[in-house]
Amino acid sequence: MNLAPLLHQYGYLLIFVVLFLEAVGIPAPSEITLVTAGVMAARGELSAPAAILVAAAGSTAGAMLSYLIGLRGGRKLILLYGRRFGVTAARLERVERFFTRYGMGAVIVGRILSGVRLLISYPAGFFEMPFGRFLVATVIGALAWPLLAVEAGRVLGSYWDQVVDAVIGTGPWILAGAVVLGLGYLVYRLSHRRPRAL
User: What is the pTM (predicted TM-score) of this model?
Assistant: First the structure.
């Protein structure tokens, strides 16, 4: 996915929107957006500090919305519908104890990890993490992730086209290898499965 034309057209607004959507739980291409912004910064087409700050602002704004949703009604909804997915009050209490103990660290790390970024703010609201602590942790994580991704793009800089070509060239082989490994694991598990007792 080449986002450079869209970044040329919409600039920092696109960065803000992508990071905002991701923070409220809507899958969005934040990785490629930020790395592309870094590549463009290396070419003098964007400002790296501005891209990082705008990304952090979008991520923080989305996280605030997610936190409020979780705070206002998330716990009731989880207890009401969570039983269908194995979420019981006892399990929820265990998660709450973990989150109470490691809440700030969980939010900071969660804002950096791919996939976790989509959902980490909701449990902070569910478990009524103090807003001040949540805000501090969110801002730290929301700055750290764009900083890493934009700087990675800046380092790649002029080599970006070669990197993309290499990934495209080796991608099918990597996929084929993953499929073979997956099938091999499935065959192994099926062949070693214990027969059910009658």
Answer: 0.70
